Amino acid sequence: MKMLNVALPKGRLGEKVYAMFEKAGYECPSIKENNRKLIFENKEKGVRYFWVKPSDVAIYVERGAADIGVAGKDILLEYKPDVYEILDLNIGKCSMAVAAKKGFTDDRNRTLRVATKFANIAKDYYVSQGRDIDIIHLNGSIEIAPILGLSDVIVDIVETGTTLKENDLEVVEKFVPISARLIANKANFKFKSEMIEDVKAKLLEQTENL
Amino acid sequence: MENIYEVMTYDEKIAFSLRSLYAQNGYNKYRMSKFEEYDLYVKNKDFLVSGNVITFTDTDGRLMALKPDVTLSIIKNSKDNPNELMKVYYNEHVYRVSKGTHSFKEIMQAGVECLGKVDNGVIASVLDLAKASLNKVSSSCALEISNLGIVEAVLDACGFTKSEKREIVVALGEKNEQLIKEHCLRKELSASLTDTVTKLVSVYGNCDKVLPLLDCFAISSECEKEIQSLRAIIATMKNTDGVIIDFSVTGDMRYYNGISFKGFVEGVPVSVLSGGQYDKLMAKMGRKSGAIGFAVYLDELDRSEGR
């Protein structure tokens, strides 16, 4: 029996996603054991799960180590992996947004300094706006960049906006809705399409009831 | 002499067996120089898999390039004769930017090109040869075929603009049914037309399953013509085992038209074969002939299970 390899994002989102897979009939009880293992399989159900860093899920799937996986739309837009994006799971919903210090107005005579983890998404957005920008690539604590004068604005994921508010920032514009997507490796899909279609159909039923 | 086969690497063995296959099928070996004038690639930059090209100035001052592609050279150096068929095969190194390292990489590529009088019989024989090439690599393989003509005719019948079509084709390549539905919603298409467009994603599978379903795309006379053409080509193929019809095999519609295909072998996470008709590229280069061809990416075969 062929095994279906599934890359799940570590963390709260991954746990929600696993619960959906479990409900879909692809349970793997050993995953709930409290240990540091990262790979779990249920041979009977023909499924093997890996816990990986959320931003790495797309790499595992693109390179075929996983047949399918669940990645945020932000990761897919940023890294543009060559994978099938077969289902919007309608969970992990948030937005990609531009934020700035309260009262900020954009002076178009100057190059806009943008701090972000998502350099490609920010570039694509400002190209579409015809705005000249300078990207400051940061890996975390993006919110403090405008406060310290490192940047004029930030481009980041916004869920509730609480972190922004606490740092005296506000949303200027939300420009892409983000949610978790079921992705599949293009080559492996050819050889495991029945299993993948079955997972997709059962997860789709659940997303429609969300 | 007997020991030569034993010391060959896996790629070399495959390359030789493909050469033998193409020669047996009436293709002539096409030898070309390592370099081309850079100008050829500037004019057709979007056709290249990666836009970057290694260039150098030759002793006579001409700006030259290490070939990033073989097809453009073959077209450039061939005569335009729409009434005859030229069948060639090649085994060449090309130089492209690797996605992972963002640096140039030498890639061994084998393939065939048919230029001139390309009819349904020629297209079917090229598809058979593509499948036979995959079988040389692994018995567990799949050839995925699309007809870009059907995709374009369906989108035209729905009134999508050029830029909308480009976006939908990208979504189709990702099998992103929901994004396609959003495009249809924005275009305010009827439920029935939306259903037809989204079926470009959901209708796929082996020929026996998909051929009877194609009538769902017959929403204009152009669509009907393209459906008939696909059916005629598949009917002319000698062997359709392991052949999948899937419209998510897309290509840049500024260069490609009609049949487009990709080949996969179990164990390799990317396509190892890619090809299609490129009459539009021929027209851009001032040719009246039709053309079809494919390339096998030998460097991707390292991990095939047939190894």
Structure description:
The complex is a heterodimer of chains A (210) and B (307). The mean pLDDT of chain A is 93. The two termini of chain A are 32 Å apart. In chain A, the strands form two sheets. Chain A has a six-stranded mixed sheet with strand order 2-3-1-4-11-5. A five-stranded mixed sheet of chain A has the order 8-7-9-6-10. Chain A has eight helices and eleven strands. Chain A is of the alpha/beta class and 210 residues long. The radius of gyration of chain A is 19 Å and the shape is elongated. In chain B, a hairpin with a 7-residue loop joins β10 and β11. Chain B is globular. In chain B, 41% of the residues are buried. In chain B, the strands form two sheets. Chain B has a nine-stranded mixed sheet. With 307 residues, chain B is of the alpha+beta class. Chain B is 39% helix and 24% strand. Chain B has a single domain, classed as Bira Bifunctional Protein, Domain 2 (BirA Bifunctional Protein, domain 2), CATH 3.30.930. The interface between A and B is medium-sized, with 19 and 18 residues.
Give the helices and strands, then pairings.
The complex is a heterodimer of chains A (210) and B (307).
Chain A: E1 4-9, H1 12-23, E2 39-42, E3 47-52, H2 57-62, E4 68-72, H3 73-79, E5 83-88, E6 94-101, E7 112-116, H4 119-129, E8 133-137, H5 144-147, E9 153-158, H6 162-166, E10 169-178, E11 180-185, H7 186-191, H8 193-208
Parallel strand pairs in A: 1-3, 1-4, 7-8, 7-9
Antiparallel strand pairs in A: 2-3, 4-11, 5-11, 6-9, 6-10
Chain B: H1 4-7, H2 10-24, E1 28-29, E2 35-37, H3 38-43, E3 55-57, E4 63-66, H4 71-76, E5 85-97, E6 104-116, H5 120-137, E7 141-147, H6 148-157, H7 162-173, H8 177-186, H9 191-202, E8 204-206, H10 207-210, H11 221-236, E9 243-246, E10 257-265, E11 273-277, H12 279-284, E12 290-297
Parallel strand pairs in B: 1-5, 7-9
Antiparallel strand pairs in B: 2-4, 3-4, 5-6, 6-12, 7-10, 8-9, 10-11, 11-12
